Amino acid sequence: MNDISFHYRIDEDEGTELLTRAFFNGQQCECLIDTGAHTTSIAWNEISAGLKTVGTSKSGTAFGKSHFDNVVLQDFRWGPISRTNLTLQRSQKDQPHARTLIAMDVMGEHCCEFRFDEDRLLVGAQSFEGQALILGKRKHSYTHVQVGQTTGALALFDSGAGLSCVDAQFIKDHPQHFTADGSSIGIDAGGRKMETPLYQMSGLVCGGMAFDTHRVVGLDLSFIKGDIDEPMRMIIGFSTFKQARWTFDYPNKRWAVVPNPVR
Q1: Could you give the CA distance from residue 95 to residue 263 in angstroms, rounded to a whole number?
Q2: Which domains does the chain have, with CATH numbers?
Q3: Which DSSP symbol is given to 239?
């Protein structure tokens, strides 16, 4: 078992960013750990400016679509994980808020346990009792959650989201579990900003574990096209993640969640 340390950038309105350090062609970069993204991305900087371009692409983000250059990185190293000739998405010059992030094209090949109470990620095979993990065509991972008496709501696991997000129509249909809590200016993976309403959500059960009331963002998720056919009702972000330990065995499509140990 190998471990990778992570740290946080905390914002009361935007939520908490889950950050780590990795090496891109031998140079250390601070990166967002983003299970909600398919392709590892690098911001436009002195490291990425000289990388070989092999095409362009666009990716859907929480607030729209972003355009990228596809570039080849000769050497990528993140704790025990290393890759050569890794194709990345590079943000364009006019995206000053875009982030460097590690995505599912890297993490999806491993079993990963997020221990938020210890600020570390354990990488390597584990034996654990879990449940089936729904994996989409682009390696995004999902499960079904319960809010109050409503079961079967599809949720995306997204460690790159500072706050969990709930579909605006779902909030309207289940108002007893959502209390208005102001608004915030959010930034998605492409660097786009948008003001969004905030709520305190109660009654969430995920993986058999009941979660404490916590802050979420209300967002129209209907336009976010996932990589499975079922409509998405929730994005599980840091405000939910921090309450527990989560294990994702991506190669074997299993996952589990347990409460953080009492200390």
Answers
A1: 43
A2: 2-111 (2.40.70.10), 129-259 (2.40.70.10)
A3: H
